[in-house]
Amino acid sequence: MIDSIINSTLLLAVPIVLAALGGAVHRRAGVVNIGLEGQMLVGAFAGILASAATGSWAIGVLVGGAAGAVAGLIMSLVITRLAANEIIVGLGFNIVVLGIVGFVLRSVYGVSGTLRFPEQPRIPRITIPGVADVPVLGAILSGKDVLFWLAVVLVPVLAWVFANTRWGIRTRATGANEFATASLGVRTLGIRDLAGSIAGLLAGLGGVALALGVSGLFNENMIAGRGFVALAAFYFGRSRPLPTALACLLFSFFDALQVRLQTNSEFPTDLIQTLPYIAVVAVLAWTGFTTLRRSSRVAV
User: Fold this and answer.
1) CA 69/CA 234 separation, integer angstroms
2) I want to staple 47 with a disulfide (CB 3.0 to 4.6 A). Which of 103, 208, 245, 277 is the partner?
3) φ, ψ dihedrals at 274, nearest 5°
4) Please, what's the b/e burial string for 51-80 (b: 16 or more CB within 10 A of its CB; e: otherwise)?
5) Which residues have a Cβ under 8 Å from the Cβ of 115 and sit 6 or more positions away?
6) For the segment 180-231, what is each residue's pLDDT rounded down to a tens digit?
7) How many alpha carbons fall within 13 Å on the CB side of residue 97?
8) pTM beyond 0.85
9) Total Cβ atoms within 10 A of residue 239
10) Is the separation of the CB atoms in 248 and 238 below 8 Å?
């Protein structure tokens, strides 16, 4: 049972970790990305269509990531070039994407809600010989796909990039004080647009991980608030890659636990399904409390 929960937790964490890391990049540039939900949906939809049309999961991954990047860039341009409110734009973007996807499903494919193709290609999982049968270690390392390993690699890579590269330092400076950074000749709008594209790319890959890695189909409601959970994760982690990823793992653990409890519990299913979101609210409340306490100490 422990191995099953560990395996489920890690698989369910991949979409959220990718989206949250993208949101963290955008936040470091000074923009709170509320549109992660819509960007994940764009990536999932584009990925499932491309993979089904070509018979290649790899093309589905590339197209889904590219579609997410384009969506992220469009949203960023509205914010940076038209000076629109980032919260309103993000919420509106999510609603527009959901409406467009629903319209395409019904008018083009004649389905309502769920789209499933016969012989749908899925991202293969890599089994490590000699490790797969080892308790706990096998559940952690074996049976994972390329997007899982991408998420694992991105955590230290992004931490290093933000601390040691010219782009990372300029991105952090833009988020800290856009006007002071611009006065030094840095193209802050371009940095924010690039960060928005990266956020969309990673969120799109998160949607692909959900569609081609976890479920093998597309549903217009399949993101189910994961974009907002990713938002909460990078808020909890203060846009730092490792704490952000750990927050995603916490949510995914409760998500995997509620799935297990639904099949082995007498508690009402509706109440069990709220476990992951209760965990998110509790984490955010604790974060707010510790921040307030720290601020009061500084004031004293």
Assistant:
1) 19
2) 208
3) -85, -10
4) bbeeeebeebbbbbbbbbbbbbbbbbbbbb
5) 48, 105, 109, 217, 218, 219
6) 999 888 899 999 999 999 999 999 999 999 999 988 899 999 998 899 999 9
7) 30
8) yes
9) 23
10) no
